[in-house]
Write a structure and sequence with these properties.
Blueprint (H helix, E strand, L loop, with lengths): L16 E4 L24 E4 L8 H16 L2 H18 L1 H8 L3 E5 L8 E5 L4 H20 L6 E6 L9 H18 L13 E8 L3 E8 L3 E8 L4
Antiparallel strand pairs: 1-2, 3-4, 5-8, 6-7, 7-8
Helix pairs in contact: 1-2, 1-3, 1-4
Amino acid sequence: MSTLKNKCYYCGQPKTSMEHVPPKVFFPDKKYSHNDINHRQELITVPSCDVHNSNKSHLDEYLFVIMAINILANENGQHLALKKAVDKIIKRKPKLFKEVLGSAQEVLVDEYGLGELQSTFAFEFDKNKLDECFDYISRGIYFHHFQKNYEGKVKSRYQFVVSLDSDSVTTNKKLEEYRQFVKERLNNIEKHGQNTEVFYYKVLEEGSDKVFFQLSFYESLKIDIFLLTESS
């Protein structure tokens, strides 16, 4: 175990720093907290080399921009992070925010599975870049949870995604059915994390070669992670 602590969670090279997974920026600073709680205590950290920490800072920024837009549309996210915290990031990256929101369109979704359509907005994002972001985060969570490196493939599925195609109502209904299925499957699974209002993860193991993580931000933004070894 002592040897493992000195090696990068991603590639196994010698450690040069500790990395937060997910990035620290997701956890509201105490000055933005609605109840004076410091959400930046006891965060998950893993050993990292320079390549897999500081050299990917641009990915962390892109990830937060995408997630921050969802936070603004999320009641719990607004409650915890406060609009001022997100506004600060918007001011730092106005061009990227404008670029992403420029693709926004109105869509109808059955958000609560009650057969009632509500109007919301959706926007396009760089899926390859977001997949790369969650590849890092997933391997970090795996390292933290199982105390070993993960060397297989990572597949991400974003529950906050809605369809913008010509038959968006039908497609979004199927997406909602998937979300409800996963919710029921994970209903009694333990939450892991010290700041669960902001972030937690759940784990399902299916045999020795399949692991499923669900990452939850602000109790409503869900990302499903499928970890598959080469043999599965």
